[in-house]
Amino acid sequence: MKLFESKKSDDYIIIIGCGRLGANLANTLSDDDGNVLIMDTTKNAFRRLSSNYGGLSIVGDGTDLDALRDAQIEKASAVIAVTNDDNTNIMIAQLARDLFHVDRVIARLYDSERESVYQALGIDTICPAILSAKEVDKMLEKCGKEQIA
Amino acid sequence: MKLFESKKSDDYIIIIGCGRLGANLANTLSDDDGNVLIMDTTKNAFRRLSSNYGGLSIVGDGTDLDALRDAQIEKASAVIAVTNDDNTNIMIAQLARDLFHVDRVIARLYDSERESVYQALGIDTICPAILSAKEVDKMLEKCGKEQIA
Question: ipTM for the complex?
Answer without folding.
Answer: 0.81
